[in-house]
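STRUCTURE:
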């Protein structure tokens, strides 16, 4: 491309946009912040989203809107010929995610889920260790991402906006468990069975969610996610030869470099990886894919497959009809 990729942000008052993704765009050598749109921020470039999509300086959009709005604005962006980096989860349901994929494919634009943990060097290193047999045959995985969401007006408390802990922090827990199991999330048979239990908030969303996944051949994964429990970020992968674990597993940064190992003989140690800003790496990868110099590391099919598993877990936690 003759100029840096111009990225517009739809919903620029989003916390993750302001704190992480906009700084990553501004710090990237591969793209530039071309415009912002907000319905409430007078300092944004545009006071409506449609005007941003009409801006010829915008080549791609980042969508950090509430989950219920992801499909609408991804489809509108695709219709306007803009590539789409959409905040995770890609959509509230697998059917919505599939429609987004189809719209972007029809328009010839890139669709990428903004799941940044995947790009952190320690996360890559952990996946490589498991894949290369450092734990032996994988048996179990456990993930927990909990913390207190103390803003009562936050859209994540509202069911009509795609709220709930499973759709928000649960995504972080499920992705590494699926990767460790070595299954294709796009394969309908990759997860044989699931169970789920939810503790509901007054409006009906899951304030806390716990689940279990059967990957077959004696492999399983369990997780806990919550908007009401104390802050915890834990990931542990256990195999026949060793167990690997990390803290601050899902929002790692420059200082998060250690992977703990416990071997079958009881000895322990630390494997040192590298730290980095995963948002910056995610944005850079998105730009490379748009420019045609890289293939998506996590395809839309992967995101849709993950969402199908989330749908199954949500259904499993629904109260039985009386």
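SEQUENCE:
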């Amino acid at each position: 491309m003759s100029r840096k990729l111009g990225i517009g942000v739809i919903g620029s008052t989003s916390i993750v946009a302001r704190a992480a993704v906009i700084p990553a765009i501004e710090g990237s050598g591969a793209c530039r912040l071309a415009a912002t749109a907000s319905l409430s921020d007078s300092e944004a470039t545009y006071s409506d989203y449609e005007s941003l999509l009409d801006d010829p300086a915008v080549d791609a959009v980042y969508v950090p809107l509430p989950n219920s709005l992801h499909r609408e604005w991804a489809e509108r962006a695709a219709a306007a010929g803009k590539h789409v980096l959409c905040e995770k989860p890609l959509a509230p349901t697998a059917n919505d995610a599939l429609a987004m994929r189809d719209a972007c494919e029809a328009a010839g634009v890139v669709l990428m889920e903004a799941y940044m943990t995947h790009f952190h060097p320690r996360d890559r290193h952990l996946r490589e260790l498991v894949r290369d047999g450092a734990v032996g045959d994988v048996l179990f995985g456990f993930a927990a991402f909990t913390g207190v969401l103390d803003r009562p007006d936050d859209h994540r408390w509202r069911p009509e906006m795609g709220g709930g802990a499973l759709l928000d922090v649960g995504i972080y827990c499920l992705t590494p468990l699926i990767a460790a199991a070595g299954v294709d999330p796009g394969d309908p048979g990759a997860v044989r069975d699931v169970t789920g239990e939810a503790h509901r908030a007054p409006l009906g969303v899951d304030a806390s969610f716990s689940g279990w996944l059967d990957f077959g051949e004696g492999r399983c994964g369990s997780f806990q996610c919550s908007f009401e429990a104390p802050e915890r970020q834990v990931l542990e992968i256990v195999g026949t030869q060793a167990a690997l674990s990390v803290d601050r597993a899902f929002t790692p940064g420059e200082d998060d470099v250690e992977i703990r190992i416990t071997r079958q003989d009881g000895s322990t140690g630390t494997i040192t990886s590298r730290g980095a800003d995963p948002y910056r790496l995610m944005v850079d990868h998105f730009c490379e894919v748009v420019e045609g110099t890289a293939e998506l590391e996590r395809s839309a099919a992967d995101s849709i497959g993950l969402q199908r598993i989330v749908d199954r877990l949500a259904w499993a936690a629904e109260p039985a009809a009386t």
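REMARK: The chain has nine helices and 13 strands.
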